[in-house]
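Good morning,

Attaching, inline, the backbone tokens for the sequence recovery test we're adding to the shared suite. The designed sequence is right after.
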């Protein structure tokens, strides 16, 4: 724990990292406000019913396009000055969100124009997060990257939860209809302007790229992306630790997605708990708090138990929690379940990120993480689509709880068994610091 605190103090002492974190926090607070406004308009408008099929369609609409386009974003992040990307992309999504807010006040949130703008803003969010990740090695020494990644992703998630909580209060003040959601979206647009201005404090060349491919045509680079992602997948398959980690977190993301969609429907107007958007907001906050605790606990635990053993343990705990605290279908038990599932999600992600970073060669790392990001999104979308078949409109399904619990238990057991069989043949696993 002392080593972890020392590493974190060292990371926070870097001025460039603090400025980059300010951009991330401001942007993800805005993300939280915008996404809460979107959720309230689509899922929690008192005049609009929501089914598992509609929820699945919404998630597929927002996640699938970026899963296809996302890997190509790296081509531009490796060509353009990333500081200018952070400035201009934040200002652009502020402008897009202002137009989105106007249209949301005039049209149904499921209309093509509103959905297109929402999709564009979500894609810009992912593009900016990729830019922040690509910029991180320019402001943090290599030995401290894992600590910096753990801290920045956790604080970013916390900032998004703060933004969502702000949206809860604004919803009470401005109204629960589409007009209220539109006004909240305008506030998020102003916050994005703030993120863009904060990015201006960073040096123009401070975030790279160090050696942009000036003589390579963009169309040639774009054409090589699909091959690059495929090469990344092959490279992962040849690295046992990374391959097992990605398989485990892909399974986790699927079962987490099933649980999330069912929980979402529990809190809608026709849901079994009838607690609305405020109740769901409390569940999300509990999940984020679980993730924050995981970020604090994981470094110390992995030094004693090992990264791979910790992944198996948190998934086994998730299986027990799903049954023990999911089946009562009470608000307070779901808060407990959300805390532990959030803990498992963040703890496993920190560990898998570290395994992938350490087990893959630097020349392949960008392509591997593009494959990772695509897998992460597709697993969640697959869960949403399956939920359309399994989850009733009120969200209450003991069968889904059973599937999630058994899924987590099997993932834990298979991962632990595969790790035990291969550990003697592989290099020592990394330690999260």
């Amino acid at each position: 724990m002392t080593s972890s605190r020392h590493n974190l103090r060292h990371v926070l002492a870097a001025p460039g990292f603090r400025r980059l974190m300010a951009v991330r926090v401001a942007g993800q607070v805005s993300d939280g406000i915008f996404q809460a406004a979107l959720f309230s308009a689509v899922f929690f408008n008192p005049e609009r019913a929501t089914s598992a099929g509609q929820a699945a369609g919404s998630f597929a609409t927002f996640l699938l396009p970026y899963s296809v386009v996302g890997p190509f974003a790296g081509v531009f992040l490796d060509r353009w000055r990333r500081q200018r990307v952070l400035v201009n992309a934040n200002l652009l999504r502020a402008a897009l969100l202002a137009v989105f807010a106007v249209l949301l006040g005039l049209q149904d949130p499921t209309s093509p124009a509103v959905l297109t703008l929402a999709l564009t803003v979500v894609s810009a969010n992912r593009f900016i997060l990729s830019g922040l990740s690509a910029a991180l090695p320019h402001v943090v020494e290599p030995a401290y990257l894992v600590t910096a990644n753990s801290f920045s992703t956790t604080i970013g998630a916390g900032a998004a939860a703060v933004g969502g909580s702000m949206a809860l209060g604004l919803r009470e003040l401005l109204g629960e209809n589409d007009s209220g959601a539109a006004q909240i979206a305008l506030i998020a647009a102003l916050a994005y302007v703030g993120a863009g201005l904060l990015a201006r404090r960073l040096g123009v060349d401070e975030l790279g790229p160090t050696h942009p491919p000036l003589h390579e045509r963009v169309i040639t680079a774009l054409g090589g992306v699909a091959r690059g992602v495929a090469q990344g997948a092959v490279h992962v398959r040849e690295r046992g630790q990374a391959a097992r980690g990605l398989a485990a977190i892909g399974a986790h993301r699927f079962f987490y997605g099933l649980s999330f969609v069912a929980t979402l429907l529990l809190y809608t107007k026709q849901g079994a708990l009838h607690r609305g958007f405020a109740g769901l907001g409390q569940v999300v906050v509990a999940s984020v708090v679980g993730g924050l605790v995981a970020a604090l606990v994981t470094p110390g635990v992995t030094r004693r138990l090992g990264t791979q053993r910790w992944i198996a343990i948190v998934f086994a705990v998730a299986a027990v929690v799903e049954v023990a605290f999911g089946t009562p279908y009470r608000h307070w038990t779901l808060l407990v379940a959300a805390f532990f599932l959030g803990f498992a999600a963040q703890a496993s992600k920190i560990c898998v990120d570290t395994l992938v970073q350490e087990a893959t060669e630097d020349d392949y790392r960008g392509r591997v993480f593009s494959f990772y990001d695509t897998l992460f999104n597709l697993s969640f979308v697959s869960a949403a689509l399956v939920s359309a078949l399994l989850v009733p409109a009120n969200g209450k399904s003991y069968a889904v709880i059973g599937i999630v619990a058994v899924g987590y238990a099997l993932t834990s057991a298979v991962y632990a068994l595969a790790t035990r069989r291969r550990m003697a043949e592989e290099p020592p696993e990394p330690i999260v610091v």
